[in-house]
Design brief:
Layout lengths: L3 H14 L24 H7 L1 H9 L6 H4 L25 H10 L6 H7 L46 H13 L6
Length: 181
């Protein structure tokens, strides 16, 4: 069972999302309470995963048959930060082990070959400039709240962004008339 703080956070996030215009078809990002500890909300969350695909189908924006023949993976981490070294974090060996096992059906170099032809994307939230404390934020990187997506880069590779991924993300944003920071 989630507590009052989680319920308040849910309300705050839902209220903030109401400020954004809905996408075509009227779909809005759902906000649900989920607890891995109690299992609350997990079934509902899984059910919600079908909504974006249904919207894309209605809008005739699904990938072509050639694109759908490609293998795609969508990974959600319990401890999502790339820096998380927990057993279920993004720096754990879970995904690497899984992909290695799945690729063994082919040949020994199937995984490196597939990865070399892949686009790997890591999605996370960015810390925006707080309007009351703009002087406390990095002067060279100033993502503004509500102004669109942000590409995160780190010299120590704390983020998965590389030139190919940043270019693909920028093209996708431009196709939607967005400008990433």
């Amino acid at each position: 069972m989630v507590g009052a703080s989680a319920s308040k956070a849910q309300g705050d996030v839902a209220a903030a999302l109401q400020l954004a215009a809905p996408v075509a078809g009227g779909w809005r990002v759902p906000v649900r309470l989920v607890s891995a500890q109690s299992g609350q909300g997990i079934d509902e969350l899984i059910d919600l995963l079908a909504e974006p695909a249904a919207l894309l189908a209605r809008e005739h924006r699904l990938a072509s048959p050639r694109e759908t023949a490609k293998t795609r993976a969508f990974v959600l981490y319990d401890h999502e930060e790339v820096g998380s070294q927990s057993a279920s974090g993004a720096r754990s060996d879970f995904l690497g082990t899984l992909l290695s096992r799945l690729s063994r059906a082919g040949c020994d170099d199937a995984l490196p070959r597939a990865l070399s032809r892949s686009l790997l994307v890591s999605a996370d939230m960015a810390h925006g400039v707080h309007p009351n404390y703009p002087d406390k934020h990095d002067k060279l990187h100033r993502p503004m709240l509500g102004r669109g997506p942000v590409i995160k880069v780190n010299a120590n590779q704390s983020y998965a962004t590389d030139a190919q991924g940043a270019a693909a993300f920028t093209r996708a944003c431009q196709a939607e008339q967005l400008t990433p920071a």
